Amino acid sequence: MEELMTQITPYIMIILTAIAGYLATKIKAFFDARIDKDNQERLMQFIKATVEFVEQIGIDLKPEEKFELAKAKVLIWINQRGLTVTEEELQVLIEAFVHNLTLSKPAGSIVFNNTPATPAEIDPGFGIPYNVTKEE
């Protein structure tokens, strides 16, 4: 039974990813119809900035805590601007952005202009030996 689950798991993940992509497309189409283009672009930019902010500061947070923090920050911004978005729409948009973020880069990597950065781009001194001394 365990071997069967090990063999089936990749296929289940593919199917779930396809279903999630299909649902995200349908919900996005519905979302496009409800919010005018300008507000939608501002909302997406704010969701992107908020998710990236939460990813940077929430290193020690669990995924659920990161989601709740991002959701709270976006809701504050939405309320300040008088926009109307349902909780389901907001959840889908945040999760879709996080999903795209994780697909666009390997775990633990830094991305510049949608391409994974090399260690030398992150730290120009990468590979140059240096002395580290401990303070006693």
Would you mind describing this structure in some detail?
Strand 1 and strand 2 form a beta hairpin. The protein has one domain. The C terminus is likely disordered. Helices cover 70% and strands 3% of the residues. The protein is an all-alpha fold and 136 residues long. It has a two-stranded antiparallel sheet with strand order 1-2. The chain is globular and about 55 Å long.
Concise description?
With 136 residues, this protein is an all-alpha fold. It is 70% helix and 3% strand.
Topology of this structure?
Layout: H1 2-34, H2 37-57, H3 63-81, H4 87-104, E1 111-112, E2 115-116, H5 119-122
Antiparallel strand pairs: 1-2
Helix pairs in contact: 1-4, 2-3, 2-4, 3-4
Protein name: Phage holin family protein
Transmembrane segments: 6-24
Pfam families: Phage_holin_6_1 (PF09682)
